[in-house]
Amino acid sequence: MREILSVHKIGYRLLGMIHGVDSTIMPMHLLEVCLSVVQVYAGLYLTAGLIDLLLAGAYGQAAEWALYLLLVNLLLGTATVLLKRKFRGMETRIWQLFYVWMREKAFSLDYETMERPEISEKILFSERRSNMHGGLGMLLYYYCDILRALLHILLSAAMVLYVCMARPSQEAGFWGTLARPLPSMILFGGALAGMAVGSWKVYSRFGARIQEIFESHTGVENKISYLQMQVLGDAKVGKIIRLYGMQEMIFKNAMENLKSSVAFFGKMCDVERGQENANNVVSSLFAAGSYLLVALKAVTGAVTVGAFTQYAGAMNQFGSGCFKIIACHGGLREICTYMGPFLEFLDTDNLHAKGSIPVEKRTDGEYELAFEHVDFQYPGCQELVLKDVNCRLRIRGKLAVVGKNGAGKTTFINLLCRLYEPTAGRITLNGVDIRKYDEEEYRSLFGVVFQDFKLFAFPVWQNVTAGGTREDDRIRAALRQADAAEFVEKLPQGLDTYLYQELEEGVTVSGGEAQKLALARALYKDAPVVILDEPTAALDPKAEAEVYERFHKMVEGRTSIYISHRMSSCRFCDEIIVFDKGQIVERGSHETLYAAGGSYARMWDAQARYYA
Ligand code: ADP
Asked: What is the pLDDT of residue 535?
């Protein structure tokens, strides 16, 4: 019982959400259900009357009833067809709602929360299953069918009651006694109880099995998703696959998973077929019992011959209504196994409270950022990645952050950009803890080019403006500053040329060109703080030197931070901090650090040898 309630709690909430988006969907579906039910019972009633009139030889009146029957079917049938035609557009919309809600929520969550493995599991699980099993569209379909079945049960129950209560013309004798109201009720009640017990047994036996098969299959679905989207669906991965001859390994892996998937669908089909057969047996027994009862009533003169079709039809509707509810509940249970996690995802709160104070708008760029005793540990990891980091970013200063791989440089930037929050200590902007600021306003202070920068399969201008308004002059200026103007000019549609091939016939850009576009994007933002995390990794030494020179001019009047393996970049900076195992171990200018002969000097000398 608790399980039934929890399924419908999820269903009810989702229906409410659909209604909240479009208040016409529910009423129109309700109307369709009501019309279809009325059509059935009007048909039953009119057919019964028609048969009785024909048997009584009242042919004129019978023709009139036949006309009513035709009109009712025509009118209600047309209305239902028209409504269903409207549903076609709605179905796509309802199907899309799931993805809209999913994305809206994902964008509203902070990066740290989204990175939690259980969150991506919930997204992947419900998205994949929704694709496989119909999601919200099927939910609405099942609820409509449940409502239809309930209406059938209600109306047919009234008719069944009426037929049971009808007194036979001859109450004597065995059949006459059986056809009396009380024995009829007992007979019908017996058939009903038999059906209830039978169908409950079928539901429990097969439902649990279906659930079990479903659960055991999730892992395989996730693997197939990964292979489809991130391995086989990514052209760049194809390069590695060919170079390393991984085709056979990946093909084998995919085939194994697909084999499991085929086995899963086979098993599901077998169980579902078994469930259908078992249901058919139970419903046939119930139908046979009902027909016998109505036949008894007709033979003993309790109802007319015409009414026989009407009542037998009603009994049939009663039985199939009960089965429909059980079957739809099974379908809903299946849907709720993945819609439950989806709703949990929608209910996920951000790990940290969001601040609300606005960031002071300053034209002089006087934004002072500082780390105060900052410790940081990635979610789910044991070790501190940053330990007691203290540092003040000089306003309009140029800061270089150096250190070995894994020393914590990118993490330092991640925290500064508020992608994560310190585990201990605080980061301040003009003396105020950055957690207190409105997140969007705070982030608007930074133009960042991450090491793993991403461009999108959108036109060049959209990649540069990144959602901002299109101002061609400014875009061209940013491209010039990032040394990307020349190659963009040569593109077939200039700024309107699409990148990559995913959305449109676009161009493929080289690693260096892509990096320049990412730099132009950071510059277009015109933020007071510019951060470049390994900005020149994909550039040759000459281009790198040029970029640095240009950069230093570009960031004039702004605060800039460089993370680079290329020590030569440090020379241009006012201050250098050296990270080692999550701690700042040295800080100062190039001259002072080099003269100190510590790890900075060693790194410098090691690289100077290669440049010599
Ligand atoms: P650097 O930029 O100096 O190469 P990072 O800041 O990227 O170093 O990484 C510092 C440490 O944090 C490394 O040990 C790395 O494995 C770990 N790390 C980085 N990102 C994550 C993450 N998202 N989850 C868990 N650990 C991470």
From this structure: 63
High-pLDDT (> 90) share of the chain, %: 21
Q: Which residue segment(s) compose the domain that 453 sits in?
A: 369-611
* Residue-wise DSSP of 265-319: HHHHHHHHHHHHHHHHHHHHHHHHHHHHHHHHHHHTTSS-HHHHHHHHHHHHHHH
Q: How far is the CA of 132 from the centre of ligand 1 (A)?
A: 36
- What pLDDT is recorded for position 537? 62
Task: Kindly state whether residues 341 and 373 are assigned to the same domain.
Answer: no
Whether 337 and 373 share a structural domain: no
Q: How confident is the model at residue 43, as a pLDDT?
A: 87
Q: Is the CB of 515 under 6 A from ligand 1?
A: no
How far apart are the CA of 582 and the centre of ligand 1, in A?
A: 10
Q: What pTM was estimated for this model as a whole?
A: 0.71
- Residue 74 resides in a domain: yes
Q: Is 611's pLDDT higher than 70?
A: no
Question: What are the residues whose beta carbons fall under 8 Å from the beta carbon of 224, sequence distance 6 or more?
Answer: 254, 257, 258, 261
Residues 56 and 176 in one domain: yes
Pick the more confident residue, 611 or 130.
130
Is residue 213 scored above 60 in pLDDT? yes
Tell whether 175 and 285 lie within a shared domain: yes
Domain-embedded: residue 352: no
Residue 407 beta carbon below 6 angstroms from any ligand 1 atom: yes
CB of 410 shorter than 6 A to ligand 1: yes
CB 176 within 8 A of CB 137: no
Domain count along the chain = 2
pLDDT computed for residue 219 by the predictor: 75
**Cβ atoms < 10 Å from Cβ of 526:** 13
CA–centroid distance, 406 to ligand 1, in Å, is 6
For the domain that residue 584 is a member of, what is the CATH number? Answer: 3.40.50.300
